[in-house]
């Protein structure tokens, strides 16, 4: 059995990145193959970084490097998060195409590849993660590695027209074709990538995921990422969850809860969502005083200007909506700019009548799946999901909305609040089955089978 070698920006050697389902899934694969995991240490240093740090934990070898200030800025803050992130989320208007940031992006991809190659042995398979490392396949090949490389993109892949807006798109596409198996969150993303190769690179779609391009034969498939479904369901009935539900229950005083839980990111459609909630109070007067919307949105990437602007916009909108609709004994919209423990979140999901997951664009959206698993089978809440979230392909039995259409979203929230118990149960049961069957282990296995990695 060959080893699996993972490469991602943050690794599970970093305690803050360890809790997520992805870290657990990758870690489990590595422990079963005796693998290694390469990435960033999370530290930024002045001057040149020292030699990579080697950490061994539960049989997994982590090799992580510090970034210089220039690398952290050019590679991470600028090119990855202010160019690729907005363009891949269809926000070309927010992209900052600087002069030198792509150089930094290339150099970090190369530096990590050079760190990995000397450790690779015949029979190994490499698994690269996400938009930070789109060039990794090319640099691993240039370093002499000709074994299998898989790549999974956690964020959307945009339509060919939008991808072409990226000044370096040709080089990026060519480098991506050095991977052997490319994984996308949805069929839509996969088809965008394949269409680009067919239209712009003389690629031939051979069917069944196979593509011939640039003299190579590669595979591109959709592998929608899942959550640790059963264990999340258990969290929702645990003590911490119950305590959180009791606390918010006191605030609600018998009113129904409409909930949103997102990182504060412009891709999540938060201003549009706030406006839709305002419209609901406007157009459906019976909801006034009976329903309360709570949005949990911890600030993220707060050094980046676009995220600071979003914060200001949300502060203003929340103030306006509460000013317009609030009353002496009722706060229509609450917005908590902080994060909560997963166990507490599970309790909030469970008590919510409706969960609003309305990103303008999202690779998958795990909140939607967590909400489903946290429900009480006797009285499940209703998920309202954006058609632009990857999760909409799998969770089509829920209420799907266009997040730009505030009137329709407002109407759909009202419909969800009024939905009869039987219909809620029927829909929820279908969603639950999908989330349980297509959980994080299913995702990992599906990808590794295609990469021909034998894990037990
Ligand atoms: P993204 O990866 O873009 O942030 P996802 O919905 O796919 O979006 O994943 C978000 C993860 O972060 C989920 O597991 C969710 O539980 C967690 N999360 C989101 N908001 C909060 C919050 N306010 N506090 C704690 N965890 C959060």
Detailed description of the structure:
With 456 residues, this protein is an alpha/beta fold. It contains 18 helices and 16 strands. The protein has helices at residues 15-18, 21-33, 69-88, 101-116, 136-142, 160-163, 169-176, 187-200, 229-235, 239-252, 270-283, 305-325, 342-351, 366-373, 391-394, 406-418, 421-437, 440-450, and strands at residues 4-10, 36-45, 53-57, 60-68, 125-129, 149-152, 181-184, 204-207, 210-213, 216-222, 256-261, 291-296, 333-336, 354-357, 382-386, 399-401. The strands form 2 sheets. The protein has a 10-stranded mixed beta sheet, with helices on both faces. Strands 13-12-11-14-15-16 form a 6-stranded parallel beta sheet, with helices on both faces. A hairpin with a 2-residue loop joins strand 9 and strand 10 (216-222). The chain is globular, with a radius of gyration of 23 Å. Bound molecules: adenosine-5'-diphosphate.
């Amino acid at each position: 059995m060959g080893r699996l070698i993972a490469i991602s920006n943050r690794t599970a050697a970093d305690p803050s990145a360890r809790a997520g389902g992805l870290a657990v899934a990758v870690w489990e694969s590595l422990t079963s193959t005796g693998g290694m995991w390469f990435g960033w240490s999370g530290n930024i240093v002045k001057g040149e970084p020292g030699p990579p740090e080697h950490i061994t934990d539960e049989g997994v070898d982590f090799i992580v490097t510090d970034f210089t200030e220039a690398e952290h800025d050019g590679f991470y803050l600028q090119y990855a998060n202010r160019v690729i992130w907005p363009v891949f989320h269809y926000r070309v208007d927010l992209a900052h195409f600087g002069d030198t940031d792509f150089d930094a992006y290339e150099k970090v991809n190369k530096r990590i590849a050079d760190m990995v190659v000397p450790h690779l042995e015949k029979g190994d398979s490499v698994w690269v993660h996400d938009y930070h490392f789109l060039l990794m396949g090319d640099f691993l090949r240039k370093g002499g590695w000709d074994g299998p490389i898989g790549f999974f993109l956690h964020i959307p892949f945009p339509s060919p027209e939008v991808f072409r807006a990226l000044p370096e798109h040709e080089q990026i596409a060519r480098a991506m074709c050095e991977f052997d198996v490319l994984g996308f969150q949805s069929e839509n993303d996969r088809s965008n990538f394949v269409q680009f190769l067919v239209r712009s690179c003389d690629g031939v779609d051979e069917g069944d995921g196979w593509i011939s391009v640039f003299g190579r034969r590669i595979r591109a498939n959709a592998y929608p990422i899942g959550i640790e479904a059963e264990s999340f369901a258990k969290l929702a009935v645990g003590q911490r969850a119950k305590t959180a539900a009791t606390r918010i229950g006191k605030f609600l005083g018998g009113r129904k809860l409409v909930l949103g839980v997102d990182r504060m990111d412009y891709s999540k459609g938060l201003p549009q969502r706030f406006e839709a909630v305002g419209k609901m109070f406007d157009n459906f007067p019976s909801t006034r005083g009976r329903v309360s919307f709570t949005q949990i949105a911890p600030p993220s990437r707060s050094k980046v200007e676009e995220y600071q602007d979003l914060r200001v916009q949300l502060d203003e909108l929340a103030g306006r909506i509460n000013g317009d609709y609030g009353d002496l004994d009722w706060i229509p919209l609450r917005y908590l700019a902080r994060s909560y423990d997963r166990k507490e979140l599970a309790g909030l999901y469970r008590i919510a009548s409706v969960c609003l997951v309305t990103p303008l664009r999202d690779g998958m959206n795990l909140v939607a799946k967590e909400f489903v698993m946290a429900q009480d089978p006797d009285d499940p809440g209703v998920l309202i999901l954006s058609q632009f979230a990857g999760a909409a392909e799998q969770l089509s039995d829920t209420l799907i909305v266009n997040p730009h259409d505030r009137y329709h979203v407002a109407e759909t929230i009202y419909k969800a609040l009024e939905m009869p118990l039987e219909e809620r149960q029927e829909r929820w049961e279908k969603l639950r089955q999908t989330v349980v069957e297509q959980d994080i282990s299913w995702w990992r296995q599906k990808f590794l089978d295609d990469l021909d990695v034998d894990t037990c």
